[in-house]
Amino acid sequence: MTVASGQDAVPATAAPEVEFISLTHTNASTELAPIPTRGLDPAYIRRYVRALEDGGFDLTLLPYGSGSADSFVLASAVGQLSDRIKPIVAVRPNTVFPTVAAQQLATLDQLTEGRAVVHLISGGSDVEQARQGDYLSKTERYSRTSEFIDILRRSWIETEPFSHEGAHYRFDGFGPGFPPHAGSIPISIGGQSDAAFEIGGTKADVFSFWGEPLADIKSQIERVHAIAAASGRTDRPRIWVTFRPIIDRTDELAWAKAHDYADRIARTFESGAFRARPQGTPQNVGSQRALEFARRQEVYDRALWTRTAAATNGLGASTALVGTPETVAAAILDYIDLGASLVSIRGYDTLNDAIDYGRYVLPLVRQELAHRKATGRRGCVQAEHLGALATAGRP
């Protein structure tokens, strides 16, 4: 194998493989075209999950909110509707006792033959937490998450009954618990607070980020890995990044679509037709960071666009990657080069975007990674599709 050099060299930090994540939507209502409904559409869910499987996605997130469908029940349904996709169950520790969550997750893992993943949400809003009776401070919530993780793992591996007395949980003689399909279940957490980094670096299998500029993500990944190393871990948490790509046949058409989308999203949130737009400064650090990036500028790096985050006042993962499928694939590879091995891409035109990503974006990224594996060198997609790097940015 020829040794690569210069721009052809694959960065030492690059993830050699990537898994793609989507989010399973439960009906056709979107931020672009809201439909007044709080219900599930089983036919739509079946079609959506099949589109993810046909498109080559590897995992799908089942989100959780106080007014949403139950993530455990949805994850079980997705596990049976698909043959390969791994359901990621979003869980707030205030909503379920950890030994019960351990049983639920292990049951899902056995039903799906080892495909279960759990994403723990400590809670970024006091108001949202209070809707389900959780009045702990943010610091206390992260302390509870740390204890929750310890109990989950013990519940899966202990072969004799055990007891626990901690700051947040107490029980006697539990178990042995119901085991997962094969040993354990990956645990993911996210967040931008110091507590999130500490718990993620020391205990999580996966640490998740929203889409941020490359330089900022790089420093965040280094921080997580440094905490993991300092804790004595021999492994490192996998890095998960999330984007909302907007693609079209040319970069110019994609940017025109992006500006149209941002205007429509802003109108939707102003009207409250999809979800109420949060007012004032968000409490969670991730949203604060997203809004700060948006205030500084709209376009970063090759394709990262922040106006969509501003339109929602930083609500959830909302930064976009804009361009042709080639430009967006190149932008995703930029993050893979920093160490991201889990890439979540979900669109604003939810089902149609998922289909398009599977047809046009995922194959390009996987083709590049196969080329790297075979040759030890980068391919041409990043060099040939510069996006905003080729200009002074987009208006």
From TrEMBL:
Signal peptide location: none
Keyword Zinc-finger belongs to the record: no
Domain Luciferase-like: 29-341
Origin: domain of life: Bacteria
Record keywords: Flavoprotein, FMN, Monooxygenase, Oxidoreductase
Keyword Oxidoreductase among record annotations: yes
InterPro entries in UniProt: Luciferase-like_dom, Luciferase-like_sf, SsuD_RutA_monooxygenase
PANTHER family membership: ALKANESULFONATE MONOOXYGENASE, ALKANESULFONATE MONOOXYGENASE-RELATED
Protein name in UniProt: LLM class flavin-dependent oxidoreductase
